[in-house]
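User: Could you walk me through two proteins back to back? I'd like the raw sequence and the structure tokens for each, with a short line separating them so I can tell where one ends and the next begins.

Assistant: Of course. Protein one, sequence then structure:
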Amino acid sequence: MKKILVSALLVIASSVGFTQNFEGTITFGIEYVDLPDEMAAYESMMPKEMSYKFKDDMAKMIQPSAMGQTVMIHNGKTDKTTLLMDLMGSKYAMEADNTKKKDETVKPTVTVLDETKEIAGYKCKKAEITIVGEDGEEQKLTVYYTPDLAVQKFGQTDIEGLDGYPLEYEIEKEGMIMKLTAKEVKKEKISKAEFDIPKDYQNITEEELKAMFGGK
């Protein structure tokens, strides 16, 4: 069970997107569209919501779950991302790898469709994203995005060729499909202290984290 839930945490954590101009909080709901049989039994324990706090070049993701809480803090000036996991009382800090270059991967194909809908107060356009995996298999995902949020994108929301910020999008990884939809976009003042890295977390690598919970 721990291995399955940690896999879900790492997949969602890689989906963070950041903005420099917007200061405030964006809250997303998480829906599990498709889960492998071994994960379906634990769906009720998986994260159902996450929020992002933005200020200047800093961003913070907060994601509660049945296991505890996962936080990701990104510094846009240094391009440093720190993942903080408080899992069942154990606290771990992991520095994410931001070094992979886009030109090392196959660029996705973005097809803008003639459909719009309003999400969290923003008019969003619909697009179909076609991704070719390492095995050569095509995968199609749906995105609703708005050009009305100035965004510095990162991770799964950084879809090359998409002219806007996704307020509803899908993630497919390790056999599961999750849909994330913005519930609220709230402009507000955020304290700089929100982005301080706590001192009481044990520094580990991603490989060490997976090994702790039975991964490979």
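----
Protein two, same layout:
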Amino acid sequence: MKKIFRFLRSMKFGMLLLAVIAALSVAGTLIPQEQETQAYEAAYPVMGKVILFLGLDHLYSTWYYIGLFLLLGLSLLFCSVLRFGRIWHAKAALLAGAERADVLEGFSVSDPAAVLKKKGFRKASDRWIKNPLGLYASFVTHTALLLMLIACACVFALQEKEDYSVMVGEAVTLPDGTMIHVDAFSMEDEKSGKLEYRSDLTAVLPDQSVVSGEVRVNHPKYFGRYKVYQQSYAYAGQADIRTDEHGRDERAVLDGAAFLTLDGVNGISYMGNYGTFILTEDGQILPEGYPDAEGEMAEGYMIAILENGQQKLTLARPDETIVVGGVYYTFRAPAAYPGLRVKTIPSFALPFLYFSFALLVIGLYLCFFHIPAAAVVRGEQIALKAAGDPETVVRLLLESAENHSTKDQGDRPE
């Protein structure tokens, strides 16, 4: 049991966990998350099935990714608790180590106390100590890492997410009054011609401040307390409707099946089906690729015309006008619009995370720049005990002693 405990709190185990988590996180950044199955099979012809089998399409919620963080948290907890138990005795142990230490060879000055003061040592009873805060460095660093993990866990566990389909030119209002407007949406990079789903957004926050930006797959953006992702896309049919030949068009955006009518009887049944169809000689409308079907290929909307109690299935081609019951329907090419995922992060999580990061910076500063050391003066010599590698402290003391000795020699009368 002790061997297991030592392994869990060892630096090698912690570094191994960090390396594996980092590698998986890079994979999660490169592979788009939470897309449709067909998207992975199309984008990764060879590795698509492997990605789906390993759950790399939803990496951050897989059992093994979460399990790695739990193990890392357990390791940090053991390290923090262990160091917390030792920290109270660390100063006394350091001073005791100086008492047992041998004096520095080749180091002898007339006033060792002056040298120690010059190098930042402070007297503690009959001994000297430098950088006592450095004794807390390891504990502070491990505690900060543990708090960062807890903060991240709070974000993952307590965040709320909602999916919205928003047409270009329209907006969605979130619970706190934040309004996110979709300015533009594209599915192809203009320069490279590659697929790149991107939404240009403008948000009006509750304090009426305005934030603009774009979101792409795996490149979300914060708008106030909300994190917005480019999640999906869809197509909506478009039809211009007017009640007389020279009247004003009213644009209808159709994101699902609908019955377009003025009197509730005569009109057009829109089925939400746009694509390429085969128009056979006997008047059938068949989907592209239908076995043994021959005829004219045409793009358009599959619709049903209901007029005078009769129904007729037909294909409405883009920019073609159909008159039903004295109403003019002109169908336009379908418009693509984005599906946005909006995540709400708990209000306390980000300040908690920032505090943890600041604490980590403090801990690392103490580790590298506040190496604790203790010294004991024995006549004109010094015995030194430093945490970690004492060479730097010894070198500084020797330089100081050389300067001090030179000064002593200059003050001597001839």
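The CA atoms of residues 325 and 353 lie 63 Å apart.

Let me know if you want the two compared in more detail.
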